[in-house]
Specification:
single chain; D-Maltodextrin-Binding Protein, domain 2; alpha/beta; globular; ten-stranded mixed β-sheet; about 325 residues
Length: about 325
C-alpha cells in the first residue's frame, strides 16, 4: 500500500510539473530533423519554419538533415528521441506512404510520433530532359509503350511522393518505366537535367526555375486543376490519364508523449508564421499552398492519408523495385 501511495504522489507531481516545464520551453536550441537531403521542399520549408520559430520564441531552431532509407533513418531518430520538445520532425506524405510500403519499419508513425502542424502542399510536375522526343504527355506514353522498360524515371527514394507519383503514373497509363531511386531530390533532379535519366516527377516549387531555363521540358502537372505558376502546362488528368492526382505536402511531428502545451504552442506559432503575408505571397509564387489544422485535425488527416495510400499501393501493385 505504501509503494502504491508513493507511485500516486510521483505521478501527481510529474503532472503538476509538466505545465511549468512547458512554460520554460524552449530553454535551449531545438532540432528539426529533416529525413531528406538538402535542397528539396522539406529542407527548404523546414528552414522557413525554423527561422520563424527562432524569431518568435527567442531560441535557436536548427535544421538537421538526416536522409537515407526512404526517410526511415531520420524519422526513426525522432521517434526514439526524448519527448521534451527539443527534437521535431519535418515530414511529408512519404511517411504516410511508408506505413504500408515498409512492413518492418523500426517505428510506427501514429504510435511513436505526435502530430503538431501541417505546413504546406504543392503539385508535382512531370518533366523530361529536352533530348527526349516527346513534346506532350501522350507522346511520352506512346514512346514508353513502344520501348517497355527502356525509359527511366528518377525519384528521391522509395516511398517519396516522387516515387509514388511515378508508380501511380505507370499503373494508370499502362507503361513500363524503370524506377531509379536517389538519396535526395537534388541528386535526382541533377541526373534528369544532365540527361542521364529521362523523366522525373518533382515538386513545382523546386522545378519551376529549371523549366523556365529550358533545362527540362514540362509535360504535365499532377493536381486536378492546373498549377497557378505553370498555367500553360496541362494536368496529367486532362492530358491523357483520367483521374490521376498526386501532390506533396509537409508537416511537423514530435515524439509521442511531448507535453501537449508544447505541441499546442508550436502549432499556434507555425500557424502565425505561414499566415504572414510575405510568406504567403512568396509561396504563392512558388506554387505552395499553406495548410492550417489543429494537432488533432492533423492527426485525423495523417490517418486518412495512410489509409488512402494503402489502397493505392495495393490496387496499383506498387513495390520497391
Amino acid at each position: 500500500m505504501r509503494w502504491w501511495r508513493i507511485g500516486l504522489i510521483a505521478t501527481a507531481l510529474a503532472t503538476l510539473a509538466m505545465p511549468a516545464a512547458a512554460q520554460s520551453w524552449p530553454a535551449r536550441p531545438v532540432k528539426i530533423v529533416v529525413p531528406f537531403g538538402a535542397g528539396g521542399p522539406a529542407d527548404v520549408y523546414a528552414r522557413v519554419v525554423a527561422q520563424g520559430l527562432t524569431e518568435a520564441l527567442k531560441q535557436q531552431f536548427i535544421v538537421d538533415n538526416r536522409p537515407g532509407a526512404g526517410a526511415l533513418i531520420g524519422t526513426d531518430i525522432v521517434a526514439k528521441a526524448a519527448p521534451d520538445g527539443y527534437t521535431l520532425l519535418m515530414m511529408s506524405n512519404t511517411q504516410t506512404v511508408n506505413e504500408t510500403l515498409f512492413a518492418h519499419k523500426p517505428y510506427e508513425l501514429m504510435r511513436d510520433l505526435a502530430p503538431v502542424a501541417p505546413v504546406n502542399s504543392s503539385d508535382l510536375v512531370m518533366v523530361v530532359h529536352p533530348s527526349v522526343p516527346a513534346k506532350t504527355l501522350q507522346d511520352f506514353i506512346a514512346l514508353a509503350k513502344a520501348q517497355p522498360g527502356k525509359l527511366s524515371y528518377a525519384s528521391s527514394g522509395p516511398g517519396t511522393p516522387y516515387h509514388m507519383a511515378g508508380e501511380l503514373f505507370k499503373s494508370m497509363s499502362g507503361t513500363d518505366i524503370l524506377h531509379i531511386p536517389h538519396k535526395g531530390s537534388a541528386e535526382a533532379r541533377n541526373n534528369v537535367m544532365g540527361g542521364h535519366i529521362q523523366m522525373m516527377f518533382d515538386a513545382v516549387t523546386s522545378m519551376k526555375g529549371s523549366i523556365d531555363a529550358g533545362e527540362v521540358r514540362a509535360l504535365a502537372t499532377t493536381g486536378l486543376q492546373r498549377s497557378t505558376v505553370l498555367p500553360n502546362v496541362p494536368t496529367v488528368n486532362e492530358a491523357g490519364v483520367p483521374g490521376y492526382e498526386a501532390t506533396i505536402w509537409l508537416g511537423i511531428m514530435a515524439p509521442k508523449g511531448t507535453p501537449r502545451p508544447i505541441v499546442d504552442r508550436l502549432n499556434a506559432e507555425i500557424e502565425k508564421i505561414i499566415a504572414q503575408p510575405k510568406i504567403r505571397d512568396l509561396w504563392a509564387q512558388q506554387g505552395a499552398v499553406p495548410m492550417t489544422m489543429t494537432p488533432d485535425q492533423f492527426g485525423t488527416y495523417l490517418q486518412q492519408d495512410i489509409e488512402k495510400w494503402a489502397k493505392v499501393i495495393k490496387t496499383a501493385g506498387i513495390d520497391l523495385q
